[in-house]
Design goal:
The chain has 311 residues and is an alpha/beta fold. The chain is 49% helix and 14% strand. Helix 2 (39-48) crosses helix 11 (234-256) and helix 3 (70-88) crosses helix 4.
Length: 311
C-alpha cells in the first residue's frame, strides 16, 4: 500500500515563498567608494547587524575622486549608482566616500529618490567633542578639504577649535594600490608625513576624513602616540544606515498589508545577488588584482573581481 502524501500546509507554502523571494531580492546595503576605502565601514555595519546582506563596489575606473571637479564627481558617482541599482537593487546605498558625499550627496538623492542614500562626512563634530587643546587635524582628499561643506561643519560644530587641513592624494594612492602587500615598516613610513604635519601644528586629535585612511587607523595611532586621538566616522555612518534601512523596512511592511491580486504575489524579476560582502571593482589591473585579492583574504570577504556591466 502506497503511503499517503502529507498535505501541504499554508505555513509550508509561505515558508517556501519567503525563501524564494529572499533569494530573488536584492542586497540590504550596497557600499560605494572610489576603491577600497569603504570596506571598514561595511565591516563595522556587519558587526552591528550580522543579518544584513551587503555588497561593495569600488569605482576604480574613476579613481581617484579627490582630484576631480564637482561635476565629474557627480557624473561618475551617478553612473555607478545606476549600475548598483541595476545589478543588485539594494534597499539602502551607503556612499562610503567623503568626497562623493560632501560634493554630490544632495544631487544623488535627487537623482535616485526611490533608494535611500546614506553619506559619509568628516567626523568634525566627534573630534571637537574629544579634543583637549582645541587643535584638530583633518586629513582627507584635496576635494574634501577645499569644499565649503567642511567649512560649514567647522562653523557648526568646532567654532572654538583650530582645524589644520591636509589633502594627501599620495597616501590614498598607497593605500589603494600597495597597502596590503606592504610591510609594517612601509605602512608606518607612509603615514609619517601626515603625522608630522599635525604634530608641528600641535594637534591632539586627527580626523581620518577619507575612508581609505581607516585601513591604517592603527598605524596612525601608533605613530602619532597615545597623546593624540585618531577618529573617524565609521560608527556614526553604520548606525545611520541601519536606522534608514529599518525605516524603509517598516514602510514596506505597512504597504505589504494591502491585498494584492494573486498574480502579483511573486516578484516578476530577480537580481544578481552575490555572496554577502562581495567586493567588486569597475576596473582592475593585474597588479591591483593581487592587492585586492590579498585584501579580501585578510578581511575574509569574497573577491568578486571586475563587475560585468552587460549581460
Amino acid at each position: 500500500m502506497m503511503p499517503q502524501a502529507k498535505p501541504v500546509t499554508h505555513l509550508q507554502v509561505c515558508s517556501e515563498t519567503d525563501a524564494r523571494d529572499k533569494e530573488m531580492a536584492g542586497s540590504d546595503f550596497a557600499f560605494l567608494d572610489s576603491g577600497i576605502g569603504g570596506i571598514p565601514y561595511m565591516l563595522d555595519l556587519k558587526e552591528k547587524k550580522p543579518s544584513a546582506r551587503c555588497v561593495y563596489l569600488g569605482d576604480t575606473a574613476h579613481f581617484p575622486y579627490g582630484e576631480k571637479s564637482a561635476e565629474e564627481v557627480t557624473r561618475c558617482a551617478a553612473d555607478t549608482i545606476r549600475l548598483i541599482i541595476q545589478k543588485w537593487q539594494p534597499k539602502t546605498i551607503v556612499i562610503a566616500c567623503n568626497t562623493m558625499s560632501v560634493t554630490s550627496l544632495d544631487d544623488l538623492r535627487a537623482l535616485f529618490p526611490q533608494t535611500p542614500i546614506v553619506g559619509t562626512v568628516p567626523a568634525i563634530k566627534l573630534a571637537a567633542s574629544v579634543t583637549k587643546n582645541k587643535k584638530i587635524g583633518l586629513l582627507a582628499t584635496n576635494a574634501t578639504v577645499r569644499h565649503p561643506y567642511c567649512a560649514r561643519l567647522v562653523k557648526d560644530f568646532a567654532q572654538d577649535c583650530q582645524v589644520f587641513s591636509r589633502g594627501d592624494p599620495d597616501l590614498i594612492a598607497f593605500i589603494e594600490h600597495d597597502l596590503f602587500t606592504s610591510t609594517e615598516a612601509e605602512k608606518r613610513a607612509a603615514v609619517q608625513p601626515a603625522v608630522d604635519f599635525f604634530a608641528a601644528n600641535g594637534c591632539d586629535t586627527i580626523i581620518l576624513g577619507c575612508t581609505h585612511f581607516t585601513h591604517i587607523a592603527k598605524e596612525f595611532a601608533a605613530v602619532a602616540g597615545s597623546a593624540v586621538r585618531v577618529v573617524d566616522s565609521r560608527e556614526g555612518v553604520a548606525n545611520q544606515a541601519i536606522r534608514v534601512e529599518a525605516k524603509k523596512n517598516t514602510e514596506a511592511e505597512s504597504q505589504s498589508k494591502i491585498i494584492l491580486p494573486a498574480d502579483s504575489v511573486h516578484p516578476t524579476e530577480s537580481y544578481d545577488t552575490p555572496a554577502d560582502q562581495t567586493f567588486f571593482v569597475t576596473a582592475c589591473t593585474p597588479a591591483d588584482e593581487t592587492e585586492y585579492s590579498t585584501l579580501c583574504k585578510g578581511y575574509k570577504i569574497p573577491w568578486g573581481g571586475k563587475i560585468l556591466t552587460s549581460e
